[in-house]
Fold each of these.
Amino acid sequence: MVTVADIRAVALTLPRTTEHLIRDRVKFRVGQIVYAALSRDETVLGFGYPREEREALVASDPVKFAFPSQSDMRFQWVHASMAELDVEEMTELVIGAWVMCVPKKVIRARLGEDYI
């Protein structure tokens, strides 16, 4: 099971990331773009994910992954049960969400040329 401390340990190492507490929810963002957020009870991790790929992700493991609320379907966003995630998978999801909102030169500097 992944904890808030695990997510924080990954997210805060990523360049340009800031942590905010907004309406009792921990959110990680780059500038004004939120790329990862926790539910109020800290059992669900919401994260940025390509809109065209999220249906396949949710279908791959519906216990672990879920669509956001209907009003949030317009965003590139997916939810994951923190109880079902391991640290390695969470790390991959958080970094993937971060990659969606930073310039390529920042990605190259942090993750190397091969990542892009």
Amino acid sequence: MQGGEPWTVDRFFEGDGTARNIYEAAERMASGIGPMTVRVSKSQVSFRRRRGFAYLWRPGMYVRSMVPVVLSLALPHEIGSPRFKETAHPAPGIWMHHLELLDSSQLDGEVEQWMRQAYEDAG
């Protein structure tokens, strides 16, 4: 594959069926909340309204990791759940919550609630 090819969902998840399955479940969840667009770059796949609200990335692209996908949610406040591997506060009014996903079953009702909050705030 040549470096100049555009990034697509297929290219981003190439060679990792588990990561692709997690993406597909997350995309179904996000599109079930409301209209959104998908943007793919070399480093992540983002779900967007007026701005991004959910981001999927593969930690194995950067560090040694057995985690296929991390879902990062941009929320207007911090959520104190032990499910999040890390929470960062990169800008005023934005808290990035990083959730390691080993399989699509982790995309449950609680995650959908958080994603809905992120979606509403991104409009």
Amino acid sequence: MGLSTHVLDTMNGCPAAGMAVELFSTEGDKATLIKSLVLNHDGRTDAPLFDNNTLKVGTYRLTFDVAAYFKARGVQLPEPSFLNKVSLDFGVANVDQHYHVPLLVSPWSYSTYRGS
């Protein structure tokens, strides 16, 4: 079923269109960049990060450029900002299942869960 993500801007009540995201594979402390992308108008990627044929069992990291996104929206953030980049480390144990990793974020807080 693959891997997907989306981001909701809880400060403004909208999708986080234009937020930069990086996907890494991880092994211990080592992280290898797989792809960099920018979220579309719906706060999602245009295609799955991995489809069901390319997703592998392992550990991954999604890094979301939260501070740059809010600064681009005109939000006055302190220097340094409370949240800069938010990284979520997660594991994929069963490639026959869909892994959806959403992020709900404001300049001061975030939450995530495994979606469907």
